[in-house]
Write a structure and sequence with these properties.
Helix content: 10-25%
Number of strands: 18
CATH class of the largest domain: Alpha Beta
Strand content: 35-45%
Largest sheet: 18 strands, mixed
Number of domains: 2
Order of helices and strands: EEHEEEHEEEEEEHEEEHEEEE
CATH superfamily of the largest domain: Diaminopimelate Epimerase, Chain A, domain 1
CATH architecture of the largest domain: Roll
Number of helices: 4
Shape: globular
């Protein structure tokens, strides 16, 4: 079986979008997804967004998210912007619309060449991240083979660990990322962000994504880093995030207000994949 796909990038994050609103074909299994992500004749992606007809008539579409290792996850901030771009390109949608996602409805605003998406409110309660801790805290100590790290933990529809570092260039992403991702205190594994705070409105960030490894950008990772810094009183309401692949802007008014993620979504090519 063959399906068409769109190869895209959001702040450098490699995204493939498959629009199945018409044919409603189910996504392939994990083994085939891994092959599509890694073989020379595959589309090569960090995340694959599988779009289908929405069950809720008020939603423009629904989507599922798959990582390069074939695992299905709850959310992808860069991916949802790419989905929004394809929907706006394919059909005459208004400048604002809603998408259904595994983590709940996502509001979309198209602002010229940028797309803003509402990523929902952050979750700091350990049991809901999930993260194993006796009680909620601003910072936690995480033991890595006798090395104790001070971290923050938050869910943006998927679990994140955030560490503050003095330099993202010298951050031990390759060494610590895979270890923290699979740490026993993160039962569903974790994305791991290494954040350097330049000032109250600007940060630098590198992210090791669960099931992928380090990527050029991670939308939910940018949201997680900013809300963690805001919660610690270190960042303002709107923050520019510099990632290896580009820039994102994250805004959060605090409390149960949604986190807004704004950035680009660029179509690179179109192709056919064999399922």
């Amino acid at each position: 079986m063959q399906v068409a796909y769109f190869k895209m990038q959001g702040a450098g994050n490699k995204i493939v979008v498959v629009d199945q609103r018409k044919d409603n074909i189910a996504p392939p299994d994990a083994a085939r997804l891994r092959a599509l992500a890694s073989t020379p004749d595959g589309p090569d992606f960090d995340q694959l967004m599988w779009v289908s007809r929405a069950a809720d008539p008020s939603h423009a579409a629904s989507y599922r998210v798959f990582n390069a290792d074939g695992s299905e996850v709850q959310q992808c901030g860069n991916g949802v912007r790419c989905v929004a771009r394809i929907l706006a390109r394919a059909t005459p949608h208004p400048d604002t619309f809603t998408l259904g996602s595994p983590s709940g409805p996502v509001s979309v605003r198209i602002e010229d060449n940028l797309i803003a998406v509402s990523m929902g409110s952050p979750e700091f309660e350990p049991a809901l991240i999930p993260f194993l801790a006796e009680k909620s805290s601003l910072y936690y100590e995480l033991d890595i083979d006798g090395e104790v790290l001070e971290i923050q933990a938050v869910s943006m529809g998927n679990p994140h660990c955030v560490l503050q570092v003095g330099s993202v260039e010298n951050a031990p992403v390759q060494r610590l990322g895979p270890i923290i991702e699979q740490h026993q205190r993160f039962p569903e594994k974790a994305n791991v962000g290494f954040m350097n705070i330049r000032d109250r409105e600007n940060i630098e960030l590198r992210v090791h994504e669960r099931g992928v490894g380090e990527t050029l950008a991670c939308g939910t990772g940018a949201c997680a880093a900013v809300v963690s810094g805001q919660r610690a009183g270190l960042l303002d309401e709107q923050v520019t995030v510099d990632l290896p692949g580009g820039q994102l802007v994250v805004s959060w008014a605090g409390g149960k207000e949604p986190v807004w993620l704004t950035g680009n979504a660029e179509l690179i090519s179109e192709g056919i994949m064999h399922l």
